[in-house]
Amino acid sequence: MQNQRKIRVLIAKPGLDSHDRGAKILARALRDAGMEVIYTGLKQTPEQIVETALQEDVDVIGLSILSGAHKTLFPMIMELLKQKGLTDVLVVAGGIIPEEDVPEMKKLGIKGIFGPGTRTDEIIQYIFENVPKRI
Amino acid sequence: MRTLPKIQEIARGVLAGDRRSIARAITTIENNSPKAQELITSIFPHTGNAHVIGLTGPPGSGKSTLINKIIREYRRKGKTVGVIAVDPTSPFTGGAFLGDRIRMQELSTDQGVFIRSMATRNYLGGIAKATKNAAKVLDAAGKDIVIVETVGAGQSEVEIIKVAQTIVVLFAPGLGDEIQAIKAGIMEIADIFVVNKADRTNADKAVMDIQAMLQLNNKEKMWKPPLLKTTALTGEGVSQLIEKIEEHRLFLEKEFERKRSREKAEAELVEAIKEKVASSIIEELKREGKLEEFLQKILEKKMDPASIAEKLLNKKFGKQI
Q1: pTM score
Q2: Which one is the CATH code of B47-255: 3.40.1010.10, 3.40.50.300, 3.40.30.10, 3.50.50.60?
Q3: Domain locations in chain B?
Q4: What's the burial of B3, exposed, middle or buried (CB within 10 Å: 0-12/13-18/19+)?
Q5: Probe site for chain B from A13, A24, A51 (most B CB atoms < 10 A)
Q6: A36 part of contact set with chain B, CB < 8 Å
Q7: pLDDT in tens, B283-319
Q8: Of B75, B109, B189, B197, which one's alpha carbon is 20 to 30 angstroms from that of A132?
């Protein structure tokens, strides 16, 4: 029987900013790249994001943040992912993340960070190349 | 590499209600992994306890928002709830945007609720091919109520009857006149009719159209589908809807459960036979290298698919079929 695996992606908006144009455009681009995209909607807590990723069994989480709270929220999200055993999920981030914060974010395990002006096909390619292969 | 736990571990996890295992089990079924059948076989004896509710209706009629309120009502009553929310896969790219969950996201951290979004993956009929068995996973995991939300359904998306015991068909005002209410299809599968967005001015017109159609439907039916009004945003009418669903559940238990279960079992058997026969013939053709030859005949219009199918079946089972 044919194995019909698809890449499942959660696009999540942590924190209190309501700017989700970028998140929606990316969701649409990933959909057009053949992925199954789940969007959380605005103002999500780290618990909501991680619990959603768990229930939806996603391969990738894309965090979109423009509020400047990434240094508080991202460590919480990464810690919760670890606690729930979701260590094999690829986490990427976008929005406003100042250059000087990038090394700290990468140390957390968020390797793909995409600032303003990133082309969607660059993100798509990054996901295709880095999504963990499931057996 | 993401290493998946052994299928029996997943099955045990599902039966223990472990959320990660439930998620993995549904993925296994969705991806049609080689081990999917083994998983279904192990959990099957533990199914049949949940009440499976199907919710269908046109796009934008408020299905997801109403489900959000239905879940809250069941939670107030101490019931656990599983949801499968189906949205369409793009026939062009194979991708999907699964947006039903946004309306229920406030419930995402409630440990008594499990919500899973599912793409149709081009299966027709308003649900995904994996929906039925995914509902079984939630059932086996001990959820009291399983709600299946179909894609925004028009007229003939009636596959949900193979999955759900109680079917709620949702309408919203302004989506069609009484001509729509006369048509066959989803109008005929409803156990309960709901006109949502009842706060709109033209809601009563929608109610009247459906009512008029229902009055014509006066055959000797044991269950007469009731017609309710809800406003999903405020939750008005939701507790009455839950009462009707419960009434229907008791009705099924008393009168018809055996009969409908029998039909459902028959439909499932037919489905299983279809799939096994088709895949065994296709695999055989591939092994013998004859698949392309037949496909070419169809493309060149030398033979039609039905005649080829008949020929292949005769070859496999002998002339008596």
Answers
A1: 0.84
A2: 3.40.50.300
A3: 1-46, 47-255, 269-317
A4: exposed
A5: A51
A6: yes
A7: 999 999 999 999 999 999 999 998 999 899 888 887 6
A8: B109
